[in-house]
Design goal:
alpha+beta, Helix Hairpins, about 60% helix, 8-stranded antiparallel sheet, 2 domains, Glucose Permease (Domain IIA), about 400 residues, 3-stranded antiparallel sheet, rod-shaped
């Protein structure tokens, strides 16, 4: 009976809150619905989506690299094709010029052949039709002798010219044949080049479609990952508010940072990191700077569960120990945040960074750079550093000095 009255009281408190604001209604409903199992499922879904996203991003980068290589091949193939087209056109021009030379040589040869035939006919006529009495016709005899001498002198020269023209024709004919073979070879090469261009173009189109698909899937998965991360963070805050305010009814607005004793771990530590921090191993401070807030120091939200360092502009932030990054990214008003599992139930929270180098799931070594602070001098950047063991905050300074 008493329990029913408590439940009734809590229900009335929630109903009153729901009447005040839409955000309060959403928060109140979540407080009655969500459980630790819901949180675990949401975080598991987020982790699976994050892992898939990494695979897709890697595949997208590889596809982009291959697409760039294909584009380079296409440009080279086009340049090669243009060069071969110019060579083919030059070969065709040379073949045409040689054809004209051969035609001219043949014409000259025919002319010389006609002259030679006339000369031979004259010699044959002189041989068969000698004058009867050269003494009676001295003029005719002199002319005949002169004609014979002239024809005997011209005949070798005509024969030489004809032989030379014949050799030129044979040479040019051979060159034409060689050029024709070269032209046929160029045609075969051009056909192979065209096939290669088609193959590369088809591959480029396939890569382009794959890239578009990957980009769409990656964008969708990024949105899903952000939604899951946001849902997990909201569940964590709601459960923190519920556990802290259970005796007097749930709060309608979760606080920004949980109190040190009641806040659950941002994420359950894995059984062991790849190289977990050992008891007694001395960790490395995450940054060099001036401590402006210490553990358990009073704040508006209660005792501080961590430290705050005022760092130099653009200061380098390092991993305090070997471990596995459980979360890396923007977290509400905390800026860039990293949660590191160093084993032994110990989680390290570092936030306030301007940029993160590492990603969730990555193994990091002690002293390895994991991010940097903002590039500003005034006010100096502030780094938040928190250490939790089994979900409870512990003094980071003691942990740094003892490693336990």
């Amino acid at each position: 009976m008493f329990r029913r009255r408590i439940i009734l009281t809590l229900s009335l408190a929630l109903i009153g809150g729901l009447a005040q604001a839409q955000s309060a209604r959403s928060q109140g409903t979540a407080l009655q619905t969500y459980t630790l199992e819901d949180l675990r499922k949401a975080e598991d879904a987020r982790d699976r989506a994050t892992a898939r996203l990494k695979l897709l991003e890697t595949e997208a980068r590889e596809t982009s690299r291959q697409s760039s290589e294909i584009e380079t091949d296409l440009i080279a193939a086009a340049a090669d094709s243009l060069r071969r087209e110019e060579e083919a056109a030059d070969t065709e021009r040379r073949i045409e010029a040689l054809r004209e030379e051969v035609a001219t040589a043949k014409s000259r040869l025919l002319t010389n052949q006609s002259a030679l035939e006339d000369l031979l006919a004259g010699l044959m006529n002189l041989e068969t039709r000698r004058p009867a009495a050269l003494a009676a016709h001295p003029t005719d005899a002199t002319a005949a002798v002169r004609a014979a001498i002239l024809m005997s002198d011209v005949s070798p020269r005509l024969t030489g010219r004809a032989q030379k023209l014949s050799e030129q024709i044979q040479s040019r004919t051979a060159r034409i044949e060689n050029l024709r073979q070269e032209q046929a070879k160029l045609a075969r090469q051009e056909a192979g080049l065209a096939a290669r261009r088609e193959e590369i173009a088809a591959l480029a189109e396939e890569r382009r479609r794959r890239q578009v698909s990957l980009n769409a899937e990656t964008a969708a998965l990024k949105a899903e990952t952000r939604r899951l991360a946001s849902e997990a963070a909201t569940l964590r805050d709601l459960l923190t508010a519920l556990s802290r305010s259970a005796p007097k009814g749930p709060s309608l607005k979760p606080v920004e940072r949980a109190s040190p004793k009641d806040a659950p771990s941002p994420r359950a530590a894995t059984p062991a990191a790849s190289q977990p921090g050992k008891v007694g191993a001395k960790p490395t401070p995450p940054a060099s700077g001036r401590l402006t807030r210490r553990f358990n120091q009073a704040t508006d939200q209660g005792p501080s569960p961590g430290l705050i360092y005022a760092t130099r502009s653009g200061a380098q932030i390092v991993s305090p120990m070997n471990g596995r990054i459980q979360f890396a990214g923007l977290f509400r008003s905390y800026g860039q945040m990293m949660i590191l599992d160093v084993g032994g139930g110990v989680l390290v929270v570092i936030s306030g960074l301007d940029a993160l180098y590492a990603e969730a799931g990555k193994q990091v070594m002690a002293g390895e750079p994991v991010g940097r602070m903002a590039d500003r001098a005034s006010p100096p950047p502030e780094l938040y550093f928190e250490v939790r063991r089994n979900g409870q905050p512990i003094d980071p300074e003691r942990w740094l000095s003892r490693g336990s």
